[in-house]
Amino acid sequence: MDGVGLWAVPYRDNKEFAEIGRIPADPKNSVLMLHGSFYDNRRFYGMTDKKYMPVFMEDIDGRFRYAALGHYHTAREWNTGKTAVAYSGSAWATANTVTGRRAVFVTDSADWKTRRIDLPVPYLHPVDLPVNIRDTAETLPEKLERMLSEVADKDNARLTVSARGTMPPGFTSIDTLRRVIEDVLNRSGIKWDGLSMEGVVQIAPGLAEHSFVQGLLDEAADIAGREGEDPELVRMYAMERINSIFVK
């Protein structure tokens, strides 16, 4: 097409791309198209069954000018060595595990420069909200608002929100914590599908007041003070650590 050689390789289950054979392509003016798993270093290749026709950078670098691949559902691009590699990903979120903005890549064969074009379509944006025992009704919303400010395309984003960590004692219940988080989400103007609180662990009843635990916390805080660390911060982390032993 317009002097560019297009080499489309049929998918071969349980085969590496290198096992298919050398393709006599013009390394300066050719495009490789295939469906498979790309690895830019063999050390990352831990599979033994060769699923999804793995292709390694060293097997294509300098042998093609560009590789347009399919299999991964999220847009990614590698510009290493002499061959550029790109997955456009699916143009629509096909499952709840497919997250991030949808995109296409456009490559000009005159200079082989590639540019990504984000598509104005709905996409899933995961939000993992960390909570800890120092969070309050004032600081937690600020934390979540900062995270939401980083959403790139607020008009098309659909948030999937998960709270994880230790229940802040300043909240009377998990439901109270949920309402504070939901209030921030509703004010943001960004669509959200759901809020999971399954990752929030509550402090075991009476644990903080137990004399043995108090002794451990006091010792941790004392050592922190002598080491120039924040005693209260260390006490908080120690409490969370001790709690993790009793609450799963």
Count of individual beta strands: 12
Q: What is the mean pLDDT?
A: 86
Task: Kindly report the name of the CATH homologous superfamily of the largest domain.
Answer: Metallo-dependent phosphatases
| Outline type | elongated
Beginning-to-end CA distance, first to last residue: 60 Å
How many domain regions?
3
> At CATH's second level, what is the architecture of the largest domain?
4-Layer Sandwich
Query: What string gives the helices and strands in order?
Result: EEEEHEEEEEEHEHEHH
- Could you give the order of strands across the largest sheet? 1-2-5-7-6
Report the radius of gyration as a whole number of Å: 25 Å
CATH topology of the largest domain: Purple Acid Phosphatase, chain A, domain 2
Give a quick account of the main beta sheet: strands, pairing sense, barrel closure.
5 strands, mixed
Assign a percent range to the helix content.
10-25%
Q: How much strand content do the residues show?
A: 25-35%
Class of the largest domain, according to the CATH hierarchy? Alpha Beta
Instruction: Tell me the structural class.
Output: alpha/beta
